[in-house]
């Protein structure tokens, strides 16, 4: 296969593969949602086409010179989903200022666990294979079919005695309350458990990514960290984790997705080598955050997942570059999509799955990632490795990671996964 493929967006009459561009004026109107979506089958899968009006044509035709003509504008549909167009131009926000799942095309068409952009690119890949007479080999991850990034937002290190102890006391479990209180007042709160998290990673022969939250003051009534990242105890843990090869990232506090000065101050409290960010409560602002992250020199962000559901918020299972709508161009900042957050599984406002329901529910999404040689990004908070976090938290982490091991994953830190993609 030649190193430079002839793929034209537009019918130029000469490229080996030519993509028929849409005639829709949707992007000129700057509306959040397409007026009409049509569906076309591809190898047994129904794919939505956002900017094509009919589906009578085959996917491909061939001109007199043997060039392949792709009859549908998959590029426009992919751009719509990857850029976050619906989020930028949509006005819907939840009480925390986040774009809600219920307002998305993924919710409307029940396609959150189907990485549509990967399917679009697979159609294009087939067109290229037809044009050149040979298939394109997939990219592997250190020889493995897909990658897994194990990430950990460090929100709480000092309050298990209070958060878990108070309910225990209310239920009459004085023994548990006293146990947690004793741990706290002897300097080892039950959630100051980063060595325990690291032990689980070692069992997997994996390196993790730990996002630390430098802000302690509440924001509009919402809590930030319960620890001081500058304290000797936390600095010792950060240094120890980094020395062991784990990645240290920034957990941008409430409101920092809108304020460059605030996020810069927080970044400066962590090692200079910090490459990535994930916003606390996933408070990524579609309008301001991409440019802000680029201004501050972040290599990547990993905030784009819906807290309410697991799946593919931008319908893609690989890292991609964020888009700056004001400048009408990609930023230098990569997005590592967040597929699953532990809290999503059983929070009263979210899915409320029982432990037995979790892995069967996740399998279809994970199979899509395996199929497209993508990246599975998992967020598991440190408190949910303890007995005082979510129900069966440690058991579920082990079940999920055992499953991806059985599927022959390769483990990467978030920064390593992004770096792999940049090398292509």
From TrEMBL:
Annotated ranges, domain DUF7033: 71-157
Gene Ontology biological-process annotations: carbohydrate metabolic process
InterPro entries named among the record's database cross-references: DUF7033, Glyco_hydro/deAcase_b/a-brl
Listed name of the protein: DUF7033 domain-containing protein
Organism per entry: Rufibacter radiotolerans
């Amino acid at each position: 296969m030649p190193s430079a493929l002839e793929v034209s967006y537009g019918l130029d009459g000469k490229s080996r593969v030519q993509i028929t561009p849409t005639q829709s004026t949707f992007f000129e109107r700057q509306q959040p949602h397409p007026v009409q979506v049509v569906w076309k089958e591809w190898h047994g899968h129904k794919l939505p086409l956002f900017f094509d009006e009919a589906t009578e044509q085959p996917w491909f035709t061939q001109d007199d010179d043997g060039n392949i003509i792709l009859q549908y504008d998959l590029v426009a549909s992919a751009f719509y989903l990857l850029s976050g167009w619906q989020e930028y131009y949509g006005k819907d926000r939840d009480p925390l200022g986040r774009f809600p799942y219920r307002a998305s095309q993924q919710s409307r068409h029940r396609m959150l666990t189907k990485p549509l952009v990967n399917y679009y690119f697979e159609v294009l890949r087939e067109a290229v294979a037809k044009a050149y007479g040979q298939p394109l080999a997939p990219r592997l991850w250190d020889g493995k079919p897909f990658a897994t990034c194990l990430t950990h937002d460090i929100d709480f290190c000092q309050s298990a005695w209070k958060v878990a102890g108070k309910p225990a006391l209310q239920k009459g479990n004085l023994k548990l309350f006293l146990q947690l209180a004793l741990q706290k007042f002897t300097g080892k709160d039950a959630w100051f458990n980063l060595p325990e998290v690291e032990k689980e990673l070692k069992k997997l022969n994996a390196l993790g990514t730990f996002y630390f939250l430098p802000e302690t003051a509440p924001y509009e009534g919402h809590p930030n960290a319960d620890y001081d990242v500058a304290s000797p105890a936390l600095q010792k843990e950060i240094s120890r984790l980094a020395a062991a090869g784990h990645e240290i990232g920034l957990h941008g506090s409430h409101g920092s997705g809108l304020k460059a000065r605030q996020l810069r101050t927080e970044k400066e409290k962590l090692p200079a080598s910090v490459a990535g960010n994930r916003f606390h409560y996933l408070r990524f602002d579609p309008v301001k955050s991409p440019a802000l992250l680029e201004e501050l020199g972040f290599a990547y962000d990993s905030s784009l997942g819906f807290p309410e559901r697991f799946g593919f918020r931008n319908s893609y299972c690989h890292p991609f570059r964020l888009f700056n709508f004001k400048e009408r161009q990609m930023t230098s900042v990569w997005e590592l999509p967040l597929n699953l957050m532990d809290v999503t599984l059983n929070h009263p406002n979210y899915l409320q799955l029982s432990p037995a329901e979790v892995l069967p529910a996740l399998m279809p999404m994970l199979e899509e990632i395996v199929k497209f040689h993508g990246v599975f990004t998992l967020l598991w908070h440190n408190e949910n490795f303890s007995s005082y976090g979510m129900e069966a938290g440690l058991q579920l982490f082990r079940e999920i990671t055992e499953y991806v091991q059985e599927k022959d994953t390769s483990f990467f830190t978030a920064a390593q996964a992004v770096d792999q993609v940049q090398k292509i």
